[in-house]
Design brief:
It is built from 2 helices and 8 strands. The protein is globular, with a radius of gyration of 16 Å. The chain is mainly beta and 130 residues long. It starts with a helix and ends in a 24-residue tail after the last strand.
Length: 130
């Protein structure tokens, strides 16, 4: 999916890409379901694509190709930053341990719903350079 695909699928208005910072609190490995990132050149687009709800879950899917993306195996405490237009997914966790992650997202401007309301839990922390 693309993070912006969730915005668009939930009545989000067109918006510029925002920054998603994926911060594993445990070592992220293929075995415990690390994130896989699909580079733009292999995804074939830099645009937000329509997303469908995956059967049996609330997950959104916007990429239907066969490229699984590149696994990002990193130690706990690493920060992996991607644009909200980047396709990514998690693999299955085949261990008996959790793979905990903190996700922070930053937008250069407020993101709105099609109705004009602010989308999500946006909290401005820098305004007019202050």
């Amino acid at each position: 999916h693309q993070d912006s695909g969730y915005v668009a699928a939930n009545n989000g208005a067109p918006h510029k890409p925002y920054l998603s910072c994926w911060c594993p609190l445990d070592d992220a490995t293929i075995e415990n379901g690390t994130v896989y990132i699909l580079p733009f050149d292999r995804a074939g687009t830099r645009e937000i694509m329509p997303h469908e709800t995956e059967a049996g879950s609330n997950d959104r899917v916007g990429y239907f190709g066969s490229d699984p993306g590149d696994p990002v195996e990193v130690p706990a405490g690493t920060i992996v930053c991607i644009t909200s237009y980047t396709f990514h997914r998690s693999g299955p966790n085949t261990t008996d341990q959790q793979r905990r992650v903190y996700l922070a997202q930053y937008s250069g401007e407020l993101i709105h719903r099609n109705t004009g309301e602010v989308w999500g839990l946006a909290v401005p922390f820098v305004q007019d350079g202050q």
